[in-house]
Design brief:
Layout lengths: L9 E6 L2 E7 L14 E7 L2 H11 L10 E3 L2 E8 L5 E6 L2
Parallel strand pairs: 3-6
Antiparallel strand pairs: 1-2, 2-3, 4-5, 5-6
Length: about 90
């Protein structure tokens, strides 16, 4: 496994005309949760409503939720972890 603290992993894909980001999550998750390395999969949405509708379906499996907040770069952004220890990020982008 790649383990260089000075670099991050990052990839972008376009699926169904929406950007999907894949990156490491060292700055979000630490060893206090019993996870040595977390993958962060970020899904982008056109509207806050679409983001919340999707999260409503998936939140039943949320094991480590983070609050959804507004940021300078997104109307709504948030993270949650599913039962397979995949960290999901949801973000509204124009």
């Amino acid at each position: 496994m790649y383990n260089d603290d000075n670099k991050i992993r990052h990839a972008e894909m376009i699926i169904h005309e929406r950007k999907v980001y894949l990156n490491d999550a060292k700055d979000i998750i630490d060893n206090s949760f019993g996870i040595d390395f977390a993958t962060h999969l970020v899904l982008t949405f056109k509207t806050t409503e679409k983001l919340l509708n999707c999260y409503e379906i998936l939140k039943k499996d949320d094991t480590l939720s983070f609050p959804f907040i507004e940021t300078p770069y997104s109307k709504l952004v948030g993270n949650f972890m599913d039962r397979f220890n995949t960290l999901w990020g949801f973000m509204v982008v124009d």
